[in-house]
Structures are given as structure tokens and as C-alpha cells.
Amino acid sequence: MKDTLKSMILSAARRAHEEGILPCSDFPEVVLETPKVEAHGDFSTNFAMVSASIQKLPPKKIAQAVLDRLEDTRKWIQRVEVAGPGFINFYLYPSAWHPVLEAVHAQGRQYGAANLGKGRRIQVEYVSSNPTGPLHVGHGRGAAVGDSVANILSFCGYEVQREYYVNDSGRQIETLGRSVFFRLKALLGQSVPFPEECYQGDYIRSLAKEILQAEGDAIAAGTDADGIAFCARYAAEKITAQMEEDLRRFGVTFDRWFSEQSLYDAGKVDQTLAQLQAKGDIYEKDRAVWFRSSAYGDEKDRVVIRKDGQPTYFASDIAYHKDKYERGFETVIDVWGADHHGYIARMKAAVEALGHSKERFKVILVQLVNLLRAGVPVAMSTRAGEFVTLREVIDEVGKDAARFLFLTRHHESPLDFDLELAKKQSNENPVYYVQYVHARISSILNKGKERGVEEASFSREAASKLLVPEEIRLLKALAAYPEVVRQSAAFMEPHRITFYLMDLAALFHAYYNKHRVLTDDPILTRARVSLVFGVKEVIRNGLSLLGVSAPKKM
RNA sequence: GCGCCUGUAGCUCAGUUGGAAAGAGCAACGGACUUCUAAUCCGUAGGUCGCAGGUUCGAAUCCUGCCAGGCGUACCA
């Protein structure tokens, strides 16, 4: 609809030019927007104001010239006016909105989909928490954002792969092994000191107990080094499996769990460093090996091999990203916690040094989550093993409420997550507000079916009965959905969907309270059933992009 | 010190990428259930968009400089 109006405006302007009223044949792109105030019409364009400097004419004069030459072949426009400093405002007939409903009915689950991606391959990597402890709330936000971005991109025509990078190598895994090993020793009755840098949480003791029961004798008989290595492998696998299960319950599943260790096993870290070395981007200084990231915009060079000979995390991360591009992804998206933002410049530098455009690497930074209970901050410290796990949050407030609340903020603003609020089944909790629309409409449709109303049918005759302002508002909102999805994909901002759904829900609840869907007039009833069915479809579609269910009953 | 993010109603936050008079929810106050789900709705009240300049027809939005908060600034990950 917008596109049709845009081309109407442009051809009117061209005619004005041919008639010699507008001197210049150069026209800006027509931007149509929905005014904030309903009194300013259904659509509005600043075309005349933007053209003013090119045409060297007052905006109002240009607007009038365009307005006089509009050819409304579809009979949509009830009234056009020049307003304010030179806006052209369009007031449409209710019938202009009826085709929207036809599109929603025809496209169903696909309504709102776009083909921005044109099948291009894109990878979203998210969560990627070290397998040294359980997932906590902060990871939950990253999971919700990453998963939703993946859903949205997939809905918009990208071929999306979801990946979890498992840091199953290096120092922190060794620390994990030692932590479990020392706890196990203690269980064996040996008094050993428990180093401060080791993980303190209770889950370490549980793991030690498990190993003791299964492999206790072998561990006791073997060397400490073997014992630590065994504990490390066992614990990392076990924790990874638990994370996978937690995420599954959170509605998040990955196409691939990518092991950091596998990069070393396949010699890919060495290969990658050799490639950079061949380009002259690697050098030795102070007995360590450095990557010349400052040549690619980073503030300084970075160590890739420490002087003790051990590669840094960054070294394998470069190899990992090289591997991603070799797997054929055109764009690679990493979802990181905001505390990693200092890492972006060096990773971008690495991507560029590997010969890929920086544009092909994007980072979504997700800000911290402050966990509250009834307004009081809940203390969290990973070191001390005091934290609220994602699993506890899911158990306490449910998957839907948690995922929805994580997406009620722009991902770059910090989020207060209140456990009590999340559990509240009231207006304070937006997830129920939106889901309630779906449940209410489902209920209406059931009642309608009992009375013999066909739910999914659309007819132009019936649709023409949709005339009250609340109905037009709903139709306009449905019409806006595809644009919201596109923007959400373009900016990788799922919260746009969340806010759209809350707005649509508000419009529906207002309509519901003012008008009855099932009336004595069969044609009007059919029209309204058809409308609310459309609303239900869009609510369900939107919620599914957020990974939230759309219940038929509440 | 430098870098990134954030400052919008009492609180929590949106703001269509530069548009018209600034938008919700919560909290406060007053109303609406014999009706398709009241987990809902209607109404009232609430603002120097951190501050100061600049860019132009027009700024919460872009630029510069301050102020405040968070995070980062490892041969940790």
C-alpha cells in the first residue's frame, strides 16, 4: 500500500515537472510515515519539504502542485491536505485497509516475512559460555536475544545457522579440573588446600561425588595430573550437557556446538597463525608472539602465543572465525556480553587480516542483567559460587515470561530483571498482556464455531463492514507488521517486535471492551471474526519470533 | 587518562534513523464485570528529553564541549 502511494506521489511530481511548474526533474526518495497523531492522517510525507531546496520553491507550493495531480485509481484516498510547514497528509477510506486482512489470511504464518536475505548464509553465535559452571541469568538474556535475532533473520530470508562455541580448552578448563579434583581428594579423606582461584560452587562438589562413585579407585591410584585431566574432561562434558538441557528448556537449540579443542586437534590454530605470518602480521617480541592488530584499526597489537609457549584465547578465536568464513557464511554475527566490548576492535582486525571485509563481522553487545527480587538487588558472584542460574529462573517464572522480559529492552541498555514481577500475572507483566489477546481470541473463535461461524474465511463483502475507528486502527497495525519485522531484522533488534506486540495487544483489548465480535448480524459477525482471526495470526507470528508461546487458554 | 554504552514523567522504558503539539506501562486518583476470558478497559494527573553551544525550514534524534552512571582498558576468558 505504501509503495503504491509512493509511486502516486512521484508520478504526480513528474507531471508537475512536465507542465513546467516544478523546474527540476530531480526528485528525492519519497518517504511515507505514519504520523504520531491520528489527526494528521493515515500517512504523511515530507516530500515537498525535502524538495524545497532542489526546486527552489516554497514547500507548500510544491506540496499543492503534487496534491493537484494525484491520480487515485484505486479510490483509496478520502482526503489529502497540505499541513504545517509543508507536509502532505493522506486520509484513506476504511476500504483502503481491508486488503490488509486478505493478505494476513492468505499468508498465515508467513505474513510479515520478507526476503531481505535472499538465501544468503549467515551465522549467529550466541551464549558460548565457558563450560566451567552453570548458565546464569545474564546468559539467559544473551540466549533470548541471539535466538530471537536468528529467528527474525531466518524469517527474513536468510539461511541462518545457530552455533555455540564451547571453550573446552585452555586454562579455565584446567582450573575446572583442579577444582573438581581437589574436592574429590577431600571426599577421599585427604586434606588438601582449596586454591582461591578455583571454582567454589556446590556443583563442583556434586561433580566430585559423581566421579568418586564411578571412577574413585582409578583416580586414587593414578597420578594427580591424570586425575585432573580426567576431572576436567568429565566436568566440562557434564556441564556442557547441562547447559544444553537448560537451553532446550528455554526454547533454544543450536545447529552446532563447536569445540575450541577441535581447532587445536585439527592444527587450525597453527595454520591460521602461519597464514597471518605469511602476510607479515605476526612478529616476536619479549619472547611472546604478537598479532599486528594495530595495522587494522585496533589500538595496539595483541599477544597470540604467550612467552610460556601457550596460545592465548585470542589465537584460537582467530582460527575459529577463519573457520566460520571457510564454511561459507557471508556474514558472521557474535552475540557478546557488554563486558567484552574491548574485544571487538581486535576481532575485527583479525577478520580483516584474514582477508574478509569488516562488514561481514558483526557483534551484538548485550548489556548486563541486574537481578532483583521485589525491587531488592540479588547479589551475584560467580567466583564465590553465588548466583541465580538460568534453570532456577525458568523454574520460577517460566520460559515465556523470562524470554519476553529479556526482550523488552534495547539490548544495549542494562536490564533490571525482577523475579517477583516476572511471576506476577497482571498488567505489570507484559507477556501475559500479549498472550491474553491470543487466548481471548481463541475463546471467541471457539464460541463462534459453536454458533456456526467459519473462523478462517475472508470475504470482501464482509470485510467492508469493518468501519469503526477501533477496527481501522487494528487493520493499520496489522498493515504495519511487515515493516516492523524488516526493521527488526535490519537493525537486529528483537525488542521492536516486543513493543509492536504490546501496542497491538492494547488496540485489541480496547476494541474487545468496546465492541462485541459475535453479534446478531451474521455479515458483521463474519467480518469481525475475520478481523480478530487476523490479529491472532499476527500475535502468534510475532511471539514465535521471540520464542514465546501463544496459548489458546489462560 | 583513553575507549564503548547509557542519561526522556516519581519508577521502568519506547520514540518509525531529522518531522507537526513528547509516548507507553507501573505507582496515584476516579470510574466500568447478569454479556465473546476483568491476566481487561475508560478517564484524570504527571516533562527545561542530563547541561551548554552548533548544523537547517525543523533536533530527544546529527556535530562539538562539559556533567553523571555503568563497563572495558591482560602474555584472563
Q: Your description of this structure?
A:
There is one protein chain. By secondary structure, the chain is an alpha/beta fold. 51% of the residues lie in helices and 13% in strands. It has 20 helices and 15 strands. The protein has a 5-stranded parallel sheet with strand order 7-6-5-11-12, sandwiched between helices. It has a 4-stranded antiparallel sheet with strand order 1-2-4-3. Strands 8-9-10 form a 3-stranded antiparallel sheet. It starts with a helix and ends in an 8-residue tail after the last helix. The protein binds one RNA strand of 77 nucleotides through helix 2, strand 9, strand 10, helix 11 and helix 16.
Task: Give a brief outline of the structure.
The chain contains 20 helices and 15 strands.
The CATH level-2 architecture of the domain at 98-110 and 426-545 is identified as Orthogonal Bundle
Query: Total strand count, please?
Result: 15
Percentage of residues in DSSP E strands = 5-15%
CATH superfamily of the domain at 98-110 and 426-545: Isoleucyl-tRNA Synthetase, Domain 1
Q: For the record, what CATH class of the domain at 98-110 and 426-545 applies?
A: Mainly Alpha
Strand order of the largest sheet: 7-6-5-11-12
Q: Please outline the major beta sheet.
A: 5 strands, parallel
Percentage of residues in helical conformation:
40-55%
- What are the segments in which pLDDT stays under 50 over at least 5 consecutive residues? none
Task: Say what the CATH topology of the domain at 98-110 and 426-545 is.
Answer: Isoleucyl-tRNA Synthetase, Domain 1
- SS class: alpha/beta
Using the CA coordinates, give the radius of gyration: 29 Å
Overall average pLDDT: 91
N/C terminus separation? 36 Å
